[in-house]
């Protein structure tokens, strides 16, 4: 069977949906479903708007990285700038520009989509859209209250790649963006191939 040959119909069927919890960030839903074997069951899952992750690289070849306490994991982590897509954002690309500016004070002239990551398929529809940003200029950051401890550093891209290799960048989209960019560089490609995000021009004003 070809790798990209899919079933004509979904293996699962949703019969009904109940929202069991809702807040400003996500919903928890309980679905009445028919499983692939034909039996009935309940499936609880989290529905979220999605998020963005930005690999920003300056003219000296340094990557912009954040270090911050991550509440859900109870630890300080290295990760790339990013955050949730908000209703005011026109799409993932707009959210990426906003998040980079808010967390780091940086704007970028050039943006390239790096694709997307599904970080928790069994429990959520969450999608993280990744972007490469270059042609950086500095402005004032606008951190949210929960980001007051966020520290921004610039690392040579090779050092960041070493952190990923060592398992020191556990955030899935951050690691994916770094590895994808490293592969494209290895193949001698100056620009990345189109991903699954918004169509983004190679010279997007901030």
UniProtKB/TrEMBL annotation:
Gene Ontology molecular functions: hydrolase activity
Keyword Hydrolase: yes
Family annotation (InterPro entries): NUDIX_hydrolase-like_dom_sf, NUDIX_hydrolase_dom
Keyword tRNA-binding: no
Key words of the record: Hydrolase
Record-annotated Nudix hydrolase domain positions: 12-177
Gene3D superfamilies on file: Nucleoside Triphosphate Pyrophosphohydrolase
GO biological process: nucleoside phosphate metabolic process; ribose phosphate metabolic process
Co-factor(s): Mg(2+)
SUPFAM superfamilies with a match to the protein in the record: Nudix
Protein name, per record: NUDIX hydrolase
């Amino acid at each position: 069977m070809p790798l990209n040959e899919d079933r004509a119909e979904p293996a699962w069927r949703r019969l009904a949906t109940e929202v069991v919890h809702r807040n400003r960030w996500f919903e928890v839903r309980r679905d009445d479903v028919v499983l692939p074997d034909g039996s009935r069951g309940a499936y609880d899952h989290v529905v979220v708007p999605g998020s963005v992750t930005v690999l920003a690289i300056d003219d000296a070849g340094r990557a912009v990285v954040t270090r911050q306490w991550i509440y859900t994991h109870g630890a300080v982590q290295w990760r790339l700038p990013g955050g949730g897509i908000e209703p005011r954002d026109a799409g993932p690309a707009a959210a990426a520009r906003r998040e980079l500016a808010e967390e780091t004070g940086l704007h970028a002239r050039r943006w390239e989509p790096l694709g997307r990551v599904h970080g928790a398929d069994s429990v959520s529809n969450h999608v993280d859209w990744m972007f490469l940003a270059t042609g950086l200029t500095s402005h004032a950051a606008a951190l949210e209250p929960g980001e007051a401890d966020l520290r921004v550093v610039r690392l040579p891209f090779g050092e960041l790649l070493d952190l990923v290799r060592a398992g020191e960048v556990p955030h899935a989209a951050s690691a994916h963006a770094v590895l994808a960019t490293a592969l494209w560089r290895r193949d001698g490609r100056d620009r990345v191939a189109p991903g699954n995000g918004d169509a983004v021009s190679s010279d997007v004003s901030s």
